[in-house]
Structures are given as structure tokens and as C-alpha cells.
Amino acid sequence: MVQQITQGIMISVATTFEGTFYKNYKMQYAFGYTVTIENRSKDTVQLLSRYWEISDALNNKEYVEGEGVIGKKPVILPGQKHTYSSGCLLVSPFGAMKGYYNMVNFNTTKKFKVVIPSFRLSEPTAMN
Fold first, then answer.
1. How far is the C-alpha of 116 from the C-alpha of 35, rounded, in Å?
2. HSE toward the beta carbon, residue 31, CA cutoff 13 A
3. CATH of residue 96
4. Which of 37, 59, 62, 93 is 20 to 30 A away from residue 76, measured at CA?
5. What distance in Å separates the CA atoms of residue 91 and residue 58, rounded to the nearest whole number?
6. pLDDT in tens, 60-91
């Protein structure tokens, strides 16, 4: 698990390997990840949008932007957490993800970015 705190918001990410399958005659490696967003600040915040950079061992990069996370824009009170799970597909058994969340502080109405630390995606039996 990786963790990082930005402006009182702690991001924790745990990953899982979900398996392989063929899509369009290419092997796909499926990975899951669970993100916990913990508000350690004194202010109420809301997650507005996300930005991901996904890379694999073949030097392919994919960029994903969008509103909220899994269809939600959670409001997180001081001392509370929001956890969600999602996933991605790679064409290689190794990769990594990193990014940020755009958030707003309800007390000050200021928008800010929260860093999602880089985390590895790896198919366990591919390591030696």
C-alpha cells in the first residue's frame, strides 16, 4: 500500500491482480485498486474530478480525466474517509498509475489538488 498526504488529505492505495484474458486478439492484464481518501484537515472538502496517468512496461501511456470517482463527487467531513474501488487493463504484466484529485474546500471555497502517489501494478508470477 502507498500513502501520501496533501493539504491534510491522505490518499492510500492498495492494488490487486485480477487475472488475464484476450481482447481483440491481445493478452490483457486486469488490475484492481482501492483508494481511501481520508480528511485529516479541519475543513469539509469535496472531490470534484480526477486525473490519472497510466503506464505499462511497453512504455504505453494512457491519460484519464473525468468528474468525480465512480460516478460520485463525495463530500468528506473532517475525520471521515471515502473508499472506492476501480480497475484498469494493461497489455503488459507490469505498470504504474499516478495522478491527482481536484478538490474544493467548503470553508474557504478554494480549489486545490491532492496528489495520488505513484503505485505499481504487477502480475505476481511474472516476477523472478
1. 9
2. 25
3. 2.60.40.1470
4. 62
5. 8
6. 999 999 999 999 999 999 999 999 999 999 99
The answer to whether residue 128 sits within a structural domain is no
Q: Are strands 61-67 and 75-76 parallel, antiparallel or unpaired?
A: unpaired
The overall average pLDDT reported for the chain is 95
- pLDDT value for 84: 98
Structural domain containing residue 82: 2-122
**Domain-embedded: residue 127:** no
Residue 112 pLDDT greater than 90, yes or no: yes
